[in-house]
């Protein structure tokens, strides 16, 4: 049985009414949302969580799972007095947001899915995740994922936003190896959740960087096709880290989702 860790929950903006809860990607933490939160309309309460074993959060229980992470996110929010939220997840955070919508439908009022997908890993991707998890565990370093900015950033950012590579490397280097390994194993074990979108009753916004090669536009279109009435926002000149590469564009999409959800 998996225990629920007490995750770190950060208030990025004070506001009122329906809050926005941001869930980060791998292998990062809540800091990836700082610029996006700052660009959201004033008056919105914006919170961001650190997933199990990442940022300031303790490691999750065994076995690692996206379901356990989703439960822990909702427990942390409810412990802070939040009973309903617009939940926005990027990449791994999107997997967690979908699991939260499936397991805690009363909590998730609206879904924002940023540079993510609903399908499970194929055999090759799953094996690669487990290989990286083993390498990180054995070396007790995050060296195996330090090269990820090259895949996370779009082609334009690598030329026009050169400082982002060092910024992402700094965030990755600050993570704990056991947390990185836990997250990889959790993602490797996740199921296909496309049907969750078909059943979800609230509004859905799908955001994808035009230059995202990890979860490309085709993956975003798959999400939109599965979710009745979902909106699609393609962020020009951005890759998998669209929320960092063009925070105002992603903030606009989240703000529009929040406006629909609160009505």
Automatic annotation (TrEMBL):
Its EC number is 3.1.1.85. It is an enzyme of class 3 (hydrolase). Gene3D superfamilies: alpha/beta hydrolase. Keywords: Hydrolase. The keyword Hydrolase applies. SUPFAM superfamilies: alpha/beta-Hydrolases (SSF53474). Residues 19-246 form the AB hydrolase-1 domain. InterPro entries: AB_hydrolase_1, AB_hydrolase_fold, AB_hydrolase_sf. It comes from the Bacteria. One of its GO terms (molecular function) is pimelyl-[acyl-carrier protein] methyl ester esterase activity. Pfam families: Abhydrolase_1. This is Pimeloyl-[acyl-carrier protein] methyl ester esterase. The gene is bioH.
